[in-house]
């Protein structure tokens, strides 16, 4: 009985290790240019490729906020997933998942069925993977705008999807593809607004850590404008004391 219990624990630990960890939450603080915390400022984070996919929250008394990113991460595909962003320019990410390790081939074709570039042609382990295509052909030349087909071939069969490139990259040189792990992390858009501040937008990525967003306070702007108006009403405000004494001494 003791051995059965030990094996059960090992099996459970192995099951846990296969579960992908959720992305780290987006957290930080909203303060004014003078580092004064802003209470009840609205913080909105959204995907740059689809601004309608977003989550929002309000800051607390210390200006702090915390938002989960689970709802922003595209769901993992079963087999070959849809590229994102789509349409795209200049690059896009192609996600796929293979249930068993083996030889994998991922090729991009034009609408005439002609091969444009081979993104993967090697043995890959099982699991979820992503590859970035930068819109260039096998010789590193930028392709023209239009509809393309990408096709995944594994030991279990073939699967294909369409993608659309905007504007095109003709005349631009570059590599064909790189593993997503070699690329920078996903970048999100951030919008901060509220009754006491001027709305501001930022960009943020998970590898940047917590954000400290400095915004303009309406109260500070009003006070600044009042000070400016007082300065303009005084003809001697921008004149040094030494120059005034010199003028008086000359009379």
> What kind of assembly state do the chains in view correspond to?
single chain
Q: What structural class is derived from the secondary structure elements?
A: alpha+beta
Strand content: 35-45%
**Low-confidence spans: pLDDT under 50, at least 5 residues?**
1-20, 180-184
Tell me the radius of gyration: 28 Å
Describe the strand arrangement of the main beta sheet, using strand numbers.
3-2-12-13
Can you describe what's shown?
By secondary structure, the chain is of the alpha+beta class. It has three helices and 14 strands. The strands form four sheets. The chain has a four-stranded antiparallel beta sheet with strand order 3-2-12-13, with no helix packed on it. A four-stranded antiparallel beta sheet has the order 7-6-9-10, with no helix packed on it. It has a three-stranded mixed beta sheet with strand order 4-1-14, with no helix packed on it. A hairpin with a 2-residue loop joins strand 9 (about 145-155) and strand 10 (about 155-170). The longest helix has 17 residues, at about 1-20. It is elongated and about 90 Å long. Residues about 1-20 and about 180-185 have low confidence and may be disordered.
Quick synopsis:
The protein is of the alpha+beta class and 251 residues long. It is built from three helices and 14 strands. The protein has a four-stranded antiparallel sheet, with no helix packed on it. A four-stranded antiparallel sheet has the order 7-6-9-10, with no helix packed on it.
